[in-house]
Amino acid sequence: MNPLVSVVIPVYGTEEYLDRCVKSVIAQTYPYLQIILVDDGSPDHCPAMCDAWANKDKRMKVIHKQNGGLTSARYAGFEIAKGEYIIFFDSDDYVEENMIEELVNKALSTDKDITMCSYYRDTADAMIPVFMGYGKGVIEREELPMQFILPIIRPMKGDPATNAFMVTKLFKTAKIRREYFVSEREYYTEDVLFNTQIALHINGIALVNKPLYHYCENKDSLTFKYRENKFEMWNKRTAWFEKYFQQNGWLEAAADRLITLHLVSLIVGADNEVIKKDEAEFKSKCRYFKQTVCETGCFQLSNIKYLNRSQKLSFLFYYFNRYDALYKFRKKRVGV
Description:
The chain is an alpha/beta fold. It has eleven helices and ten strands. The chain has helices at about 20-25, 45-55, 70-80, 100-110, 145-155, 190-200, 230-250, 255-275, 280-295, 310-320, 325-335; strands spanning about 5-10, 35-40, 60-65, 85-90, 95, 115-120, 125-130, 140, 170, 205-215. Strands 1, 2, 3, 4, 5, 6, 7, 8, 9 and 10 form a ten-stranded mixed β-sheet that branches. It is globular, with a radius of gyration of 21 Å. The mean pLDDT is about 95.
């Protein structure tokens, strides 16, 4: 018997992309779907578009709710999901027509609680495949800490290439708990926190090393928007991971990753301020970022070994108080 798959699609402010996303889902070669569109109080034409789609396909259910953010919308969809499996898509992205079929077939053949695929990164100029670096088809339960959990928290040299996105993963619905849904309004990169929590309670991950999901670079998405407390949200996330490592006995194994997370917060903060386009305030904020990281004890020149080339240069600008050069460099990197 073919298992039902619930597809949850949060919708907010994406009227330009919504039809593309929904078309790619209803065209799936795997037809046994419950498609849940969650209108998160969208102020544009998305609510009406969702209702119109529901009238065209009986597999589709629409939830209209007050705006609560991406995570709250995902959870609203999860609450009414009836499928044995569940997958979460973003409404400004789209998927290959065989994505769900490929993931379901792999899940059934391996009986793993999560099945993960590679993806395309769609830019304005190109469609770039991003493959995983595993030379096998399954990550067993005992391999998860070193092969999946630690690499998605912070990839280091020698780690397999993987991905922390929720949207590239098919989950057994019964394995998901309410507490895994951590708000993006409270922590930066909520997908990582979801995946690191659920990974403690699964029997392994099956791998489909084909790019089946299209992650589209949308300049209106959260990734490219100024967020008032982004630096603090990143640091709150780092503190969450430190506690997570302690609870699971991985604090020593993850020490270099924690150092890197503190150092990368300097760049996360700088890039956020670049988006605001206020050079005077940029310098003031970066001095604050540096002072905060100095208080952790991680702002050491010797720790530059944990960073990639671009990050090293940014760190040196911080180290020598060259905030004018840092602003120009990060502005070019961010593309604003």
